[in-house]
Write a structure and sequence with these properties.
With about 90 residues, the chain is of the alpha+beta class. It is about 35% helix and about 25% strand. Strands 1-4-2-3 form a four-stranded antiparallel β-sheet, covered by helices on one side. The longest helix is centred in the C-terminal third of the chain and has 13 residues.
Length: about 90
């Protein structure tokens, strides 16, 4: 299992478009991927779960990835967050 904290630095936080991109990445992998924010864990493959986290700009979320492709999944999620979900600021 890999666990990492990622900072949300894009202007709108984990809003619908950003959450959809997280779901898109997570869904490509067989690993179980969970996101925790303020102690609330949700499945990263669930857009409704991600939106319910209410993670705004400046928040930190924790990703827990477990499975055969966990390293690849975490790397792609880290890259997505580093690119600020490909949103223009």
């Amino acid at each position: 299992m890999i666990e990492k904290q990622l900072d949300i630095t894009n202007k709108l936080g984990l809003h619908a478009r950003a959450a959809a991109k997280v779901v898109s990445v997570a869904s490509r992998y067989n690993s179980r991927i969970h996101v925790l924010h303020n102690g609330n864990p949700v499945d990263a493959k669930s857009i409704m779960g991600l939106l319910m986290l209410g993670a705004a700009k400046g928040s930190t979320v924790t990703f827990r990835v477990e499975g055969k492709d966990e390293t690849e999944a975490m790397n792609e999620l880290e890259d997505l967050f580093a690119r600020r979900f490909d949103e223009e600021e």
